[in-house]
Specification:
This protein has 397 residues and is of the alpha/beta class. The protein folds into two domains: 149 residues, 3-Layer(aba) Sandwich (Rossmann fold); 235 residues, 3-Layer(aba) Sandwich (Rossmann fold), CATH 3.40.50.2000. The protein is built from 17 helices and twelve strands. The strands form two sheets. The chain has a six-stranded parallel sheet, sandwiched between helices. Strand 5, helix 6 and strand 6 form a beta-alpha-beta unit. The two termini are 17 Å apart.
């Protein structure tokens, strides 16, 4: 196949690293791949000419960008290349509501959480896009060599607990600008979400609407559901702060990489803050860590790249539960969970695990083998190619 990849901007360079790995995987599978870096103003300004000069392509792939791009003659990217444009969202797609609304109807939308795909189909309609589906993250980097000896494995990993990610604070309710009656509906949905270990934001909002006698087909529900991602952002900020407070109370030694912590470090003497670093450095630090913590909240039916990368790097991942992790891994053998309803006890168990060299080593070996077999970009690239074969192409140029 001839494949076009579009690279854009990304916090910590994460998505740019993802595209580099996608490129390498597709090349290794024997495909012809062209990648355009749209952060280069000259490349972006001449995109139409470059695509026409090198096309046609069997498909294009990008992370969250390009769906609303149009050539000077009005054609979208799928029409220009003569094949589907696959857009992978790594955040809740409804956090980019306007961009999604302007995305070409012949686009293929993939999400990293099955609930995200479900609510996008509900909000947009089943026929709004050529296809909406689930495609989990891939592990990035290379499999870290694992010593045969458990003690040597532990000795090579001086970092007990690693966390990478920005520090989010719940500054104000993201629905504060709504009318009071509507705001109370979102208040109830957020309270419900925070009262449970996990509920998808669209289901929490649906429950808050249902108690008011408003089903999914009611015009009020249809008007409010596109904004359900506001609940997920609010809950994510609360959960991140909840975890940091609990880790401090448990005196869990956290080595943290990410932005936004400076104002709060006096509250968390257990944190060794290393600041924001690039994604390649994150992967290198995972290979020096015993346990990598995943605190994200919004992927209860999907994946963040952090657990997969951690396991490839030979670390044990401790995460909130996800139905995807349930299906892909053996919990307790490949990775471990903590739950919001039992956070204090679970963190104490993690502290014990961090000193159990034999169990850490056994889990690292088991998890890494599954990642290499099923969860690198090789597997995801094969999935993309198979998906294109299944889909009818858009109108060709």
């Amino acid at each position: 196949m001839r494949i076009l990849l579009l690279k854009g901007q990304s916090q910590y360079d994460a998505l740019r690293v993802f595209l580099d790995e996608a490129y390498a995987a597709l090349i290794a599978l024997g495909h012809q791949v062209v990648m355009f870096d749209l952060t280069d103003p000259e490349v972006f300004a001449s995109l139409t000419e470059r695509v026409l000069a090198l096309g046609p392509f069997d498909f294009a792939f990008s992370y969250a960008i390009g769906g609303d791009w149009r050539a000077p003659d009005g054609r979208d990217l799928g029409q220009l290349i003569g094949g589907p444009h696959i857009i992978q969202h790594v955040d809740h797609p409804l956090t980019h509501l306007r961009r999604v609304g302007r995305t070409a109807s012949n686009a293929v939308i993939l999400t990293i959480d099955q609930g995200h795909a479900e609510v996008l189909r509900t909000v947009s309609g089943e026929s709004r896009f050529a296809h909406v589906g689930f495609n989990p993250h891939a592990a990035l980097g290379r499999a870290a060599p694992l010593p045969g000896d458990a003690e040597a494995h532990a000795a090579a990993r001086p970092t007990r607990f690693m966390f990478t990610g920005s520090n989010y604070r719940p500054r104000h309710k993201l629905w504060a600008d709504f009318p009071p009656q509507v705001s109370r509906i979102f208040d109830d949905a957020a309270d419900l979400a925070l009262s449970q270990d996990w509920i998808a934001p669209h289901r929490a909002l649906g429950a808050a609407l249902a108690v008011r006698g408003l089903d999914a087909d009611h015009k009020v529900a249809k008007a409010l559901m596109p904004h359900c991602a506001r609940i997920h952002e609010w809950v994510r900020a609360h959960r991140r702060q909840q975890f940091l407070r609990a880790a401090t109370e448990a005196n869990l030694p956290l080595t943290v990489f990410g932005a936004g912590y400076e104002e709060d470090l006096h509250l968390h003497p257990n944190i060794d803050h290393r600041g924001p670093v690039g994604f390649d450095e994150v992967l290198a630090q995972m290979a020096r860590s015993r346990i990598v913590l995943n605190v994200n909240v919004n992927f209860g039916e999907g994946s963040h790249e952090r657990p997969l990368c951690a396991m490839l790097a030979g670390a044990v991942c401790a995460s909130e539960p996800s139905t995807f992790y349930d299906s892909a891994f053996e919990i307790g053998r490949d990775m471990v969970y903590f739950r919001w309803s039992s956070l204090e006890d679970d963190l104490h168990r993690l502290a014990v695990l961090a000193e159990d060299a034999d169990r850490l080593h056994a889990m690292a070996v088991s998890a890494q083998a599954k990642i290499v077999a099923h969860h690198t970009w090789k597997s995801r690239a094969e999935h993309l190619v198979a998906l294109v074969h299944q889909l009818a192409p858009p109108v060709a140029a």
